[in-house]
Amino acid sequence: MMNQWERISIMSCRFDSRIGAMISLLLLGNLAQAAEGTEKRPVRGSIHLGEGVSLAKPPAAAQELSDAFAEVVAKVEPSVVSVYTSRTVQATRGGGMPFPFLFGIPPQDDEEGSAAPRKQQGGGSGFVVDGSGYILTNAHVVKDQEEIKVELFDRTRLDAKVVGIDEKADVAVLKVETGKSKLQVMAFGNSDELRIGQWVLAMGNPYMFRNTVTAGIVSAKGRNEMQGDGYSDYIQTDAAVNPGNSGGPLVNLKGQVIGINSSIWSRSGGYQGISFAIPINMVRRIAEDLIFDGAVSRGWLGLSIDDVDPELAEALNIPGRNGARVMQVVPGAPAEKAGVKSGDIVLSIAGQTVTGSADLRNRVAAERPGTKIVVKVLRESKELDIPIVLGKLGDAPSESVQTSTGEVTPIESMDGSYSVRRFGLKFIDLTEKDRSELGLSKDTKGAIIAGVQPGSGAAEKGLKEGMVVLEVDADRKAILVNSARDCAKTLAKIPAGGTVALKVQQRDRIWFVGLRAKEDKK
Predict the structure, then answer these.
(1) Which of 146, 141, 138, 88 is nearest to 118 (CA)?
(2) Phi, psi at residue 165, to the nearest 5°?
(3) How do strand 234-237 and strand 275-279 relate by DSSP bridges?
């Protein structure tokens, strides 16, 4: 990237070149006049521009794919909307934070250093799901906003109200009064039928450039590494997605929405080839609950669970490390009443293989309270089928890993990262390569934030992936962070409702961020 002086130098060179060119033209004009017009221009029509060599027709397969993209866009584009939000905030001194991990358009400070209340502008995308005015978007786009407006494809702007928000899945339903506007409804596909490698299109308003379309493939399914305290089963794609795309549709080549664009993996704040969408099958269930009931009802087993580690999988001959290990059973919970015991390995639920603790949590939450399911467990080398009637999440603590003292055990993932759900944060170790890429000194110690849970206090305070936690301060004690595990274990000791200060660094900027541990729901 050019520095300031390089840019000035180049601009100066261009300026000097123009002066030289003008002088040359004047001299040439004078010479031309002196030569009494001996130089003649070509006769119009004697030169034919652009008549080069081209293919008679493009390859059939490429043309078919190009036509398919164009047909999908023409069909779907009128259903996509822009979402504009605003709220009054108390500005803080010292300038704004960098882009958040999620990609609704971030707030911008009107004047650095100003502490007066001001209007904070934001935005994202959405799409119409019912002709009566229902629109889907992300929870983080519209949460806590005072004013929400939706701009339709024909540029009509309508006031929107929030019907319901589900922060745990990052889904929100809006409602507009259509008046004379006729809304085109987006068709739902079946996200369970998606195959890795299939073409998809991401549609929305990156940086509020309206009606932007990008193409990519399904890179992976079932991504839950960023789950934290929420529910995620992300579709991963390499379609270009940027700030402002939040809430927009991810569609297949039938023109059916198969996901809501929600988040990205990035060290820059912009697109780096990895983006995530919430599967539409999950979204449909949530949206229906929000519209008809005003809240989302989720099933509940009453288990503290963890992933199956490699040694345990090998010892018990569990293929692919599938399953979830039962750490504790909540007294009086549906699982205990049905006979599930600590130490059991949950292999499947309702006939579907359980790939890990996050997968089990998602599958249970996707079922409605009162549903009777069969849970297959491995106990003392024997497989047992246990029928269970699910309870309602919220009637008791959710599936988690929690000790008898109330501390939340940090969850170690297969990739070596550590998550602390009460704070909605995920950490990885800081390596020499990371220090170089992040512009840190060689002796810097700490843990890299590898994920921030949507809607968490950490997200609201501006923490994002790529920042480095140097120190954890609690109870007037400063604890230096030497690894991801250290950081997670220290945070796990903070009781629900307790506060902690994180010393955070991003390149040459160091500051403190205060966080409160999420209260357990009773």
Answers:
(1) 88
(2) -130, 135
(3) antiparallel
Q: Whole-angstrom Cα distance, residue 261 to residue 236?
A: 10
Residue 443 known to be catalytic: no
Separation between Cα atoms, residue 251 and residue 186, nearest integer Å: 10
Low-confidence stretches of the chain (pLDDT < 70) are 1-38, 90-115, 225-230, 269, 394-416, 476, 520-522
Closest CA to 121 of 97, 141, 95, 151: 141
CA distance 241 to 273: 8
Q: What is the pLDDT of residue 20?
A: 46
Secondary structure element (H or E) that encloses residue 218, with its range: strand 212-223
Q: Which DSSP string do the residues of 71-107 spell out, in sequence order?
A: HHHHHHGGGEEEEEEEEEEE--TT------SB-SBPP
Match 């601009």 to its residue by tokens: 11
- Residue among 140, 219, 232, 417 flagged as catalytic: 140
Query: Taking a C-beta distance cutoff of 8 angstroms, is the pair 388, 372 a contact?
Result: yes
140 classed as catalytic: yes
Q: Please return the burial class of 385, using the count of CB atoms within 10 Å of its CB with bins 0-12, 13-18 and 19+.
A: exposed
**Interatomic CA distance for residues 275 and 238, integer angstroms:** 6
- Is 238 assigned a catalytic role? no
Q: What does the alpha-carbon distance between residue 460 and residue 232 come to, in Å, rounded to a whole number?
A: 19
How far from each other are the two terminal CA atoms of the chain, in whole angstroms? Answer: 53
Tally the residues of the chain: 522
- Picking from 357, 412, 100, the residue whose alpha carbon sits closest to that of residue 242 is 100
User: What backbone torsions phi and psi does residue 243 show, to the nearest 5 degrees?
Assistant: -50, 130
Question: 233: number of CA atoms within 13 Å, CB side?
Answer: 23
Q: Which of 79, 191, 219, 246 is catalytic?
A: 246
Residue 497 pLDDT: 85
Catalytic residue among 170, 289, 307, 429: 170
The gap from C-alpha 375 to its chain's centroid, in whole angstroms, comes to 31
